[in-house]
Amino acid sequence: QVQLVESGGGLVQPGGSLRLSCAASGSFFSIYVMGWYRQPPGKQRELVAVVTSGGSTNYADSVKGRFTISRDYAKNTVYLQMNSLKPEDTAVYYCTARIISTTYWGQGTQVTVSS
């Protein structure tokens, strides 16, 4: 089994920054894709950013230039640095990891951007 443990969410003012972390643990050989999705209130879950084992990244248009995803392959950890946060970034952020053909999800961490 694989566990994903997220940390780093919270309340921040517009224009502020937060850094999310997600550590994967369990029995596996390698993780192909790690990344982040989010679910705003009353909306469906959406892609934020992902990074492959080869280092390729993909970002949602709404976060390009503001968010940066990075990955520590030795620690099986993925990070999301979020700058210039906006109220519309308010959501539950979920870590995801794809191992072979199975996708795993974390429990989610709340990010609230409000003055």
Give an overview in words.
The strands form 2 sheets. Strands 2, 4, 5, 6, 9, 10 and 11 form a 7-stranded mixed sheet that branches. 0% of the residues lie in helices and 57% in strands. With 115 residues, the chain is mostly beta strands.
Strand elements, count: 11
Outline type: globular
- Low-pLDDT parts are none
From the alpha-carbon coordinates, what is the Rg to the nearest angstrom?
13 Å
Strand portion: over 45%
**Measured distance between first and last alpha carbons:** 40 Å
Number of helices: 0
Secondary structural class: mainly beta
Residues in helix, %: under 10%
Q: Give the helices and strands as they follow along the chain.
A: EEEEEEEEEEE
The main β sheet shows up as: 7 strands, mixed
- Mean pLDDT across all residues, rounded? 95
Keywords:
115 residues; mainly beta; 7-stranded mixed beta sheet; 0% helix
Secondary structure elements and pairings:
Elements: E1 2-7, E2 10-12, E3 18-26, E4 33-39, E5 46-52, E6 57-59, E7 67-72, E8 77-82, E9 91-99, E10 102-105, E11 109-113
Short description:
With 115 residues, the protein is an all-beta fold.
